[in-house]
Amino acid sequence: MDGRVFYVEIDGVEYKDALLKIDISVDIFVNEDGKEIGRVANKGIRDKKRDRAAKEDISTDLEVDLSFDKGQANENEEIKFTITAKNLGPNKATGVYVENTLPDGYSFVNATPSKGTWANDEWTIGDMEVNKGETLVMTAKVASGGNYENKVQIYSNEVYDRFPTNNAKKTGNRVFVIKTTTKTFDSGAKGANLSNKEAKETEKFITENLQKPEMFTADCLAYKNTIEIYPKESTRQAMVDIVQQDDGSGGTVKEKPQNNKEYGGSISPSGIVKESRTGQINDINERGYAEIQIESFVGDSTFHSHPSGGAEEKKETPNAGSRVAGFGSGEDKAPEYCHAPSNKFTDSEGKIKGDIYSLQNDADKEIIRYEFARRKPQKVYIYNYLGVLATLPHEYFVNFKK
Q1: Can you give the pTM of this predicted structure?
Q2: Dihedral of the CA atoms 93, 95, 101, 102 (nearest 10)?
Q3: At a CB cut-off of 8 Å and minimum separation 6, what does 303 contact?
Q4: What is the pLDDT of residues 277-304, one digit of tens each?
Q5: What is the pLDDT of residue 113?
Q6: Burial (CB count within 10 angstroms: exposed 0-12, middle 13-18, buried 19+), residue 313
Q7: CA neighbor of 72 nearest in space, from 108, 37, 5, 27
Q8: Which of 155, 171, 187 is the last residue of a domain?
Q9: Residues 110 and 199 in one domain
Q10: What is the mean pLDDT of residues 258-276?
């Protein structure tokens, strides 16, 4: 939401509407139909769990927390962030400081520390005794259309920290999609298979507790039965812009070659999308699958499309088992590329492949990936090495249905 002022004319009189609220740090929940269920202020986000450090006998355990006084605000409205730094021991910490560079969604107003000084995006605290805590209250003004993911990180002179997980905290928007109720998809890929009862109970829990953020604990239904996807609309839109080079209208290789190959790329953890070279044009009558090579780095997610094109008429395909080979077809129609991510199939050279199978031994196998079925009804499949975890209608992948 952009915080603009809206005007409504009623019986010739123009009324000024209230400013739209800007989401600063909310969790947005969406169901499998792409409908937004609700938004609730979140409590901040810890960095992913990391290994416990060695040499505990000579280490400290620093902790930083970041809280805020509201999850939504109007443009130019001031909000307050409270940064809390603690030394949980077992030893004294020296040279402690906290970094906090405000993103462009905010403009700095002032900062008041309980100890030390604030300058150049850094809170210098100094030495901290065991079980000692300090706070800094920062006031910032909300801008419209910026980045609202605010992160703090704590450091000291000590080399080892017993629990690095609590050294960083951030606020920001997140998006969660309810897991799919489908058991198996057309490619043979397994679905999350959430029961209809569980899906309804999850929606009910969310809608009934929107004004009770304290109910949204780590193990509640809202997170247990949902999958987190990229929160920035700009990130999701960038993916869509790339895969829409296949316009979704089908056609043969001769008629619409652009609709008979795959498009895709990588997404950095921060949401930056990088397009890969498109896959080769593929004739489904000659080879029952299309593919694309995606360049990515450790920690990146990936996305790709499945072609909307296909064959003009039913013909014998070179791969046995149409669905296993990476495309779906019926006995009375021409072969089509499967909608869902391919599970496992043998290519023309006898190699075993598959969108999901290829992740089994991947170091990043748990990272969420995205596959866009360009053949109607167009759908986005959200998956990892376990199978398809959630789906969304293509039309509501960027802007959810209200």
Answers
A1: 0.82
A2: 60
A3: 239, 242, 243, 264, 265, 266, 267, 369, 370, 371, 372
A4: 999 999 998 898 999 999 999 999 999 9
A5: 98
A6: exposed
A7: 27
A8: 171
A9: no
A10: 97
Residue 266 structural domain = 20-42+172-402
Cα angle for residues 194, 195, 201 (degrees, 5° grid): 95
Give domain status of residue 15, yes or no.
no
Question: What's the burial of 396, exposed, middle or buried (CB within 10 Å: 0-12/13-18/19+)?
Answer: middle
Q: In this structure, what are the phi and psi dihedrals at residue 326, rounded to the nearest 5 degrees?
A: 105, 10
| Rounded Cα–Cα distance for residues 172 and 154 (Å) | 18
- Tell me the pLDDT tens digit for each residue of 349-393: 889 999 999 999 999 999 999 999 999 999 999 999 999 999 999
- The share of the chain scoring above pLDDT 90, in percent, equals 71
Token pair of 126 as six digits? 């100094």
Tokens standing for residue 6: 């809206």
Indicate if 30 and 115 belong to the same structural domain: no
pLDDT at 8 over 50: no
Q: pLDDT at residue 324 above 50?
A: no
298 with 341, same domain: the answer is yes
Tell me 200's DSSP state.
H
What's the start-to-end Cα distance of the chain, in Å? 13
* DSSP notation for 213-275: GGG--TTSHHHHTEEEE---HHHHHHHHHHHTTS-S----TTT-GGGSS--EEEE-TT--EEE
Q: Are strands 26-30 and 174-178 parallel, antiparallel or unpaired?
A: parallel
In a domain, 5, yes or no: no
pLDDT of residue 227: 98
Domain count for the chain, please give it: 2
Residue recorded with tokens 């520390």:
113
Tens-digit pLDDT profile for residues 340-351: 999 999 887 889
Coil, strand or helix at 316:
coil
Same domain, 163 and 300: no
CA dist., res. 39 & res. 222, Å (int) = 11
Kindly state whether residue 4 falls inside one of the protein's structural domains. Answer: no
Same domain, residue pair 193 and 314: yes
